[in-house]
Design goal:
Serine Threonine Protein Phosphatase 5, Tetratricopeptide repeat; extended; 79% helix; mainly alpha
Length: 230
């Protein structure tokens, strides 16, 4: 029994030695290529880190500083100045052009879309908001919902419902989801699609009873149910 175990160990050692020998032979044979590959990897990593440190980070900082004045105008409802700047400070459109790859540049796209919406330029709002790519858990649903608002203002309730529903599903939470479910449901009810409206109202009632929409949802359900019976 001991002899079999010893023989097995010797076989295992032989396999390991053969593997090591093959590896050594491969390294010796391809030493030049391996060295070049390592140099390339180190160079790529170095370039990437240098790019982030000396180009991306300063650009992010500059963009953050440049967008500040436009944000202040936006908060004061001065949407034209927020969009186009005041001659001394950049507007959101300038920030987009100059810093589109940065986080503030992407956020400027959202602000620009909302500014157009507030100014009654609904197609421009849609165009800007559809280009918004920042994956923020709250801002992204708000941007999608704002596209719905713009479509409704243009008289396209079908697209409005589509975008409200999409906004509600983008990131389920107790703030944005019930808002956009409610907007979609009210449009469905307006279009006499009472069954679909009731389904969304009941979702708010079940999933978000503590939201502002959830606390008053029963009267909407009753209204839609009455419409369904008529």
């Amino acid at each position: 029994m001991a002899s079999k175990a010893k023989g097995k160990q010797e076989d295992n050692l032989e396999v390991v030695e053969h593997a090591l020998s093959s590896t050594e032979h491969f390294i010796e044979k391809n030493q030049k290529n391996i060295t070049i590959a390592l140099i390339v990897i180190v160079a790529v990593v170095g370039i990437f880190l240098g790019y982030k440190r000396f180009i991306v980070s300063p650009k992010e900082k500059d963009a953050k500083n440049e967008i500040f004045a436009a944000e202040q105008y936006f908060e004061k409802d001065s949407f034209n100045l927020a969009l186009n700047g005041d001659g001394n400070n950049l507007g959101f459109l300038d920030v987009i052009d100059k810093y589109k790859s940065t986080k503030p540049g992407k956020l400027a796209r959202y602000y620009a879309g909302i500014s157009y919406l507030k100014l009654g330029k609904f197609q421009e709002a849609i165009d800007e908001l559809k280009k918004f790519t920042l994956k923020d858990k709250l801002v992204k649903p708000m941007a999608i919902g704002a596209i719905g608002d713009a479509y409704v203002e243009l008289g396209n309730n079908k697209e409005g419902i589509s975008y409200y529903t999409k906004a509600a599903r983008e990131n389920s939470n107790s703030f944005t989801t019930p808002i956009f479910l409610m907007k979609a449901a009210e449009l469905l009810e307006e279009g006499k699609e009472y069954g679909k409206a009731i389904s969304l109202y009941e979702e708010i009632q079940k999933e978000y009873p503590e939201s502002a929409e959830g606390r008053k949802i029963e009267k909407y359900i009753a209204r839609a149910q009455a419409g369904l019976k008529n």
